[in-house]
Write a structure and sequence with these properties.
With 506 residues, the chain is an alpha/beta fold. The chain has helices spanning 54-63, 109-119, 134-145, 151-158, 187-204, 225-234, 254-258, 261-281, 302-311, 327-342, 376-385, and strands at residues 5-9, 15-18, 25-27, 67-70, 94-96, 101-103, 122-126, 169-172, 209-212, 240-247, 289-297, 347-352, 362-364, 370-372, 389-391, 394-397, 399-400, 408-409, 411-418, 423-430, 437-442, 449-457, 476-477, 482-485, 488-493, 497-505. It contains eleven helices and 26 strands. Strands 3-4-7-8-9-10-11-12 form an eight-stranded parallel beta barrel, surrounded by five helices. Helix 3 (134-145) runs parallel beside helix 5 (187-204) and helix 10 (327-342) packs parallel to helix 11. The longest helix is centred in the middle third of the chain and has 21 residues, at 261-281. The chain is globular and about 70 Å long. The two termini are 41 Å apart. The chain binds alpha-L-arabinofuranose (AHR). Alpha-L-arabinofuranose is lined by residues 29, 72-74, 174-175, 294, 353-354.
Length: 506
C-alpha cells in the first residue's frame, strides 16, 4: 500500500470568508420527542417555570447554537399556526399528517420564542406552503413581528406578548419538491407561490430574510432543475435557497460512508452553479446565498419508525427518529461540518437536523438526565472554535477509492482564524480506515503563533455508542501528536479520527 500523507499550508491572506456563525444552527420539529419530552417536560425534575427542561437548555447553551429552525420539517406543511397560540387550554389537538401523530399544541410559536431566548438562539420560522399560502404566511408574520395596532399584532398582545418577536429568517415551506410532502408542488407551482408570498411578506416587514426551498437531496429526480425553475420565479424576492441532505452507512462500508462528504461538496457546488446561472439569466447583481437547513446522518431507526407510523399511529410524542449514533457517525458529521466551513462564502445558514431526541446530538431520559450522543462533539468543537475567517485549505493528501467514489482524499481539512482571539484552529479528519498518517502543517504566515492543543475523537470500534450511563466516545487532548519540526508542524492523525489542532499567538 502506498504511503499515506497530507500537507496543509495555511496562509493568512487566502481567505474564503468570515464564517457566519449561523452555520452552527440546529432544528426543532414537532416530531417524536423533540418538543414533548425533549425541550419541554413540565413534570421533569429539571423543568423550569415554563416547563422547559433546564438540563437540555444547559447542553444547548454548551453547544452555542446560534439559530434554531422551527416547527418543521414535514410537520410544517400541515401546520395551523393559530392553533399553537393563545390560552393553552383552548388550543385544539390536531391530526399531524407528516408523522401520523397527534399534536396537542401545548408548545407553540410564543413558547418556542421564549425557549430560544433561554438558550441564546434566534428562531428561524418555517411557513406552511403545503396546505396554506400567502394569507396565513402574512398573518403569522404580522402576529410575530409587527407592533400593536392591527388585528394579528393585537392578538399577540392579547395573548400576553407585548413586544414583537423580530423573527428575521423565514423558510418559504419545506421540501416542496418531495412527493411525501403534504401539498407537494411542481417547481413552477412552488416557485410562483413562493415568489408571491415573499413579495407580500417583504411589504409587511422588509427587514426579514427568506429561504426558498431547494432540493430535498442530491438523489431527487428533479435536482437541479428544481433550483433553476423555482429561482427563475423567485430570484429577486428571496435571500437564500435551501439544501437538505442526510447520509447513512446502510451497507456497513465505512470507507464509502466517510466519502459521502464528497457528495455534499458536489451538492453545494451544483447549487452554487445553478444559482449563478439564474443570476446570469436575470442579469442580476444579487448573489444568492445558501441555507443548508437540514443535514446529518439518518438511517438507524428507519424501519422501526415506519412500523410505528404504520401500525401505531396518532400517538402524542411517540419515539420516532431516535437514531442511536455510533463513533463513525461522529466522523461523518465532522466531515460535513468541515464541508460547510469550506463553503462559508456562500453557505450562510446551516441547521444540523435535529437537536433533541430526533436524529439528535442530545437525548433525554423521561425520568432521568439529558445526555450527549457521539455526534455532539464535532458540533461542539466546530461551534466553539470554528468562528472567524475560514482560510483556503491548500491541501495535498494521498487518496483512495471506495465503492461509489474515486480519488477520495485521505484527509479533509480547513483552518479557521479567529483574529480577535488571535487563535488559529485546524480541523482535520483522516478518512482512511486503514492507516494513521502524518500531516505537515505550515503556518509560517502566522508569525508569533504556536501550538496550543490537539483534541481528538477516535475509537477502535466504529460502532461504539454513548448511553445515558456511559460515554464511550468522548474527545481527549493528545499533546504528544503535534510537534514542531523545523519551521513547520507535524501532526499524527489516527485512522478514522476527528482532529482539532489549535494554535495561539504567544
Ligand atoms: O428532519 C426530519 C425530516 O427530514 C424533516 O421533517 C424533513 O424536512 C426531512 O425530510
Amino acid at each position: 500500500m502506498a504511503e499515506k500523507f497530507a500537507k496543509l499550508k495555511v496562509e493568512k491572506d487566502f481567505k474564503i470568508s468570515e464564517i457566519d456563525k449561523r452555520i452552527y444552527g440546529s432544528f426543532i420539529e414537532h416530531l417524536g420527542r423533540a418538543v414533548y419530552g425533549g425541550i419541554y417536560q413540565p413534570g421533569h425534575s429539571s423543568a423550569d417555570e415554563e416547563g422547559f427542561r433546564k438540563d437540555v437548555i444547559d447542553l444547548v447553551k454548551e453547544l452555542q447554537i446560534p439559530i434554531v429552525r422551527y416547527p418543521g420539517g414535514n410537520f410544517v406543511s400541515n401546520f395551523y399556526w393559530e392553533d399553537s397560540v393563545g390560552p393553552v387550554e383552548e388550543r385544539p389537538r390536531r391530526l399531524e399528517l407528516a408523522w401520523r401523530s397527534t399534536e396537542p399544541n401545548l408548545v407553540g410559536i410564543n413558547e418556542f420564542n421564549s425557549w430560544c431566548k433561554k438558550v441564546g438562539a434566534e428562531p428561524m420560522q418555517a411557513l406552511n406552503l403545503g396546505t396554506r399560502g400567502i394569507e396565513a404566511a402574512c398573518n403569522l408574520l404580522e402576529y410575530c413581528n409587527m407592533p400593536a395596532g392591527t388585528k394579528y399584532a393585537d392578538l399577540r398582545v392579547k395573548h400576553g406578548y407585548k413586544d414583537p418577536m423580530g423573527i428575521k429568517v423565514w423558510n418559504l415551506g419545506n421540501e416542496m419538491d418531495g412527493p411525501w410532502q403534504t401539498g407537494h408542488k411542481t417547481a413552477d407551482e412552488y416557485g410562483h407561490l413562493a415568489d408571491e408570498t415573499a413579495k407580500a411578506m417583504k411589504l409587511i416587514d422588509p427587514s426579514i430574510e427568506l429561504v426558498l426551498c431547494g432540493s430535498s437531496n442530491t438523489g431527487m429526480p428533479t435536482f437541479p432543475l428544481w433550483e433553476d425553475t423555482s429561482l427563475t420565479w423567485a430570484y429577486d424576492s428571496v435571500d437564500y435557497i435551501s439544501l437538505h441532505q442526510y447520509y447513512g452507512n446502510r451497507f456497513n462500508d465505512t470507507a464509502n460512508f466517510f466519502a459521502q462528504s464528497d457528495d455534499m461538496e458536489y451538492f453545494i457546488n451544483t447549487v452554487k452553479a445553478t444559482c449563478d446561472y439564474v443570476k446570469a439569466k436575470k442579469r442580476s447583481k444579487k448573489t444568492m446565498m445558501l441555507s443548508f437547513d437540514e443535514w446529518n446522518v439518518w438511517f438507524h431507526a428507519n424501519e422501526e419508525d415506519d412500523d410505528t407510523m404504520k401500525n401505531r399511529p396518532w400517538q402524542v410524542a411517540p419515539h420516532l427518529l431516535e437514531d442511536h449514533y455510533d463513533f463513525e457517525d461522529a466522523i461523518l458529521v465532522g466531515l460535513m461540518l468541515i464541508t460547510l466551513m469550506k463553503h462559508s462564502d456562500r453557505v450562510k445558514i446551516a441547521c444540523m437536523a435535529q437537536l433533541v431526541n430526533v436524529i439528535a446530538p442530545i437525548m433525554t431520559e423521561e425520568e432521568g438526565p439529558a445526555w450527549r450522543q457521539t455526534i455532539y462533539y464535532p458540533l461542539l468543537h466546530a461551534s466553539k472554535y470554528g468562528r472567524g475567517v475560514a482560510l483556503q485549505p491548500v491541501l495535498t493528501s494521498s487518496k483512495h477509492d471506495t465503492l461509489d467514489f474515486t480519488d477520495v482524499t485521505d484527509v479533509v481539512s480547513i483552518a479557521v482564524w479567529n483574529e480577535e482571539k488571535e487563535e488559529l484552529t485546524v480541523f482535520a479528519v483522516n478518512r482512511s480506515v486503514e492507516s494513521d498518517l502524518v500531516m505537515d502543517i505550515d503556518i509560517k504566515s502566522f508569525e508569533g503563533y504556536s501550538y496550543l492543543e490537539h483534541i481528538v475523537l477516535e475509537h477502535d470500534d466504529m460502532k461504539a455508542v454513548n448511553t445515558v450511563t456511559s460515554e464511550a466516545v468522548t474527545p481527549k487532548t493528545v499533546n504528544d501528536r503535534t510537534v514542531l519540526d523545523g519551521d513547520g508542524y507535524k501532526s499524527k492523525l489516527a485512522k478514522s479520527s476527528w482532529n482539532v489542532i489549535r494554535f495561539r499567538k504567544n
